[in-house]
Amino acid sequence: MDREHVHTRTIDFDAVAEIDGSVRLDAKLCDLRRIRFMSSVGGRVMRPGVVHDVELTLATDANRVVAESGFNMYTVPFSDREQAAGMACRDIEPAFDVLRGITVDDTYVRQVNGRIGGAKGCFHGLALAIGAGPVITQTAQRAGAGPDGAQRTRQGRYIFVDGYRYGEAGVTLVGRMQDAVSLAGPLETPAPMGDVTREVELEFSFEVTDFTYHSLGAAIRGPEAADADAHTVAGDLEGLVLGAGVFADARRRLGACETGRTLLELLSMMIPITTQAALAQLNRVGAHMPPGAGGSMAQINSCHMWVEDGPLLARVRAMHAEAAELAAKAEQAGRESENHE
Q: Cα-atom radius of gyration of the chain, to the nearest Å?
């Protein structure tokens, strides 16, 4: 099957756990668009390149309560207020301070969504915050369970997601996740790669006409490989439909086994880039993203920029209406010309 590479997302988590169980985590997300695309604002053709480069820092105490939170956006699609109806992506950076006081436990994802989800935050910062939860938990557990007792420990998690388009409407996402662990040196020393404990791969395809997952493939390798065949477990995602409730449905399908939990950690980082990977095919067939909870899968209310009835969305809709009107006038003029002849 011929396919074209259209998008890459990289996510790096670097966490250090102290002997007392406190953890400091730095997370970085970068989106690289590999093809030209039409900007949703201004009708400009955008060249390939980095479209998002954002970083989240979290620090938790010995009880896994978030004590520090910082969010920085270095490269963003909307930095020009004049272009974006008076708005700018970086306006939301201070909003991530509200993560302080959240406990990294079984309620963590719900707490994060409640504080910075949807129009209250940034969709990409939200992905980093959610992905940070398992890394903080695992790093703290490793620090307290070393062969020589509690010891300062560093864990890295590196995620690569590549998006491809094929045919008229097809999209394939290929995700890879690698965990590496080492004993941590002094704070000022560079992070070592450490021993790779687990490598995870997950691949699936869908058509933008229905967003139903098919052609699933998965593998988990390494000394901490999970307890069931990854390819078999991933097969239960066949027929998963992107839209409202997709994360809950994926969790139910993958089950409670360690393999399922591992695949879910990677899948939860892949689902948010569906829009980025599918843009070219959506434009080609004239389709739209399916609605999610609060419209997030369709970008509406996915972050503070794309608020329903907000100035940016109003400008985009006005531009689309103007383009449609011009197209209708051109078509009418063509028909009149044919009739005159």
A: 22
